Automatic annotation (TrEMBL):
Subcellular location, record wording: Membrane
Main location, first listed in the record: membrane
Membrane-topology descriptor: Multi-pass membrane protein
Protein name: TerC family protein
Amino acid sequence: MIDFLISYDAFMALITLTFLEIILGIDNIVFISIAANKLPKGQRAKATNIGLLLAMVQRIILLFFVSFLIGLSEPFYTLENEWLKIALSWQAIILFSGGLFLIYKSTSEIREKVEVPTHDEKGVRSKVIETLSQALTQILIIDFIFSVDSILTAVGMTNGLHPNHTYTLILMVVAVVISIIVMIGFANPIRKFIDNHPSMQILGLAFLILIGFMLITEAAHLSHTEFFGKTVGAIPKGYLYFAIAFSLFVEFLNYRTKKHTAN
């Protein structure tokens, strides 16, 4: 296991996944802050920290559940005709559904952030919260909503890295724990940075569209899908890492150019 965790693929997956978890967790921090700010001043920090820790536990439980479903790789139904052949398994169905969900969610989030950026915040502000327990309940509900794309992103980044699902599960758990710790320690600086550079969050959502497409092709590959006798191959994770790294490099150059122009 140690050999896998210190391998290049595992290291790149951990770095990229942790980055995406933090970027995609910004909205979560914003909504948690809104819920916590309805409490007396002395309880706000406590509610935020406890809420994030509970969120971490909730995500780890969801990771175990999703990983169990992904482990069900044996086909239970085969569809075959002249132009299409598919060996359906729960693994393929979960990956395919997850890919469609990520593409839909990311596209919707990008549209909403461009057209009505404060829509969800108004919805959270309208909730009545008077006690710490009510705030924590609201935080858990908020985090559950945001956990789905987070978990699917983790699955997309690590699926196929190692034949033993336990190893990839450990990698996902480590990434989630690191991202939550970073968010607890640097929530306000990260939030301010994203507020000043909203393109970073749009970029993160664009990455989810890419990961969603990869999940769909992975589902087709694992279900041995054939179109007119042509099989669907798996997309190497290195392509994904390169696309993300290149996009971040371009964004960094853009940031430096703007900063230089402002000075």
